[in-house]
């Protein structure tokens, strides 16, 4: 489904039908060159506004509360992060791309911002810094929370300054709140693969101590969870990871204080994995059957973990099991001694 159709579907959702069946719509002219980011979003929001026949309005940022269901952490926005957007809004006298708000009759403020947190922050900053007349251009929509979540997610996918960790936390909360804890159902509604959704959610299982090893949450990519989570389930490996993360976090802090380049995310991951890599020689021994035929090989590392490798042979299953019996018995003895 095209991004335009996803936005239209989210905007068309009503309070009485929070989860309508998605309708697949394909682009009518796939050969057309892909438009740039700004034009694509302008076209999408423009068509969405025409579909639901909602004109844009102008309002002050102070009239809007920020919907908590958006993935973006509003508290992390600052002038440095939004400098180019601030300059663009100032040059054009407002935001070209409308934000989306909904009315909140029972709220402290008349509107709640669904999408456009960066635009909202930038205009609020301008209002507080010598430009009080600039207003936020927005479209008012009637959206339930699930439709609002999908609409915000569509916009956030276009953003490079939302971390995988922010998206993962947002998805983790939404899957229980809107989709009964069923990731497959959520993936179908968002039009993303279940594996992709699972990777984002899995990232939230990374403990804060390991997250602190990264210079910024932006450096912690969803794919890193696949390598770190299995290690975190092992108490010994977890301790090594946490010790390494603590050391790396201290180095990151030292570099920040000295205006030095931070340790890149890929290097942080490599150092964490290296901390649990077994060092030293690995002892190897051949496993032979009663007839002297080679059955396989056993490797023992410095942690006394055994790895068995079986080789193709003409021996029966019983003969192979009999050859493995001494190895298994020895492993049981080693384990009892460690206790």
UniProtKB/TrEMBL annotation:
Domain ParB-like N-terminal: 57-157
Membrane-crossing segments per the record: none
Molecular function terms from GO: DNA binding
GO BP annotation list: chromosome segregation
Any one GO cellular component localisation term in the record: chromosome
InterPro entries from the UniProt entry: Chromosome_partition/occlusion, ParB/RepB/Spo0J, ParB/Sulfiredoxin_sf, ParB_N, SoPB_HTH
Family: Belongs to the ParB family.
Name of this chain's protein: ParB/RepB/Spo0J family partition protein
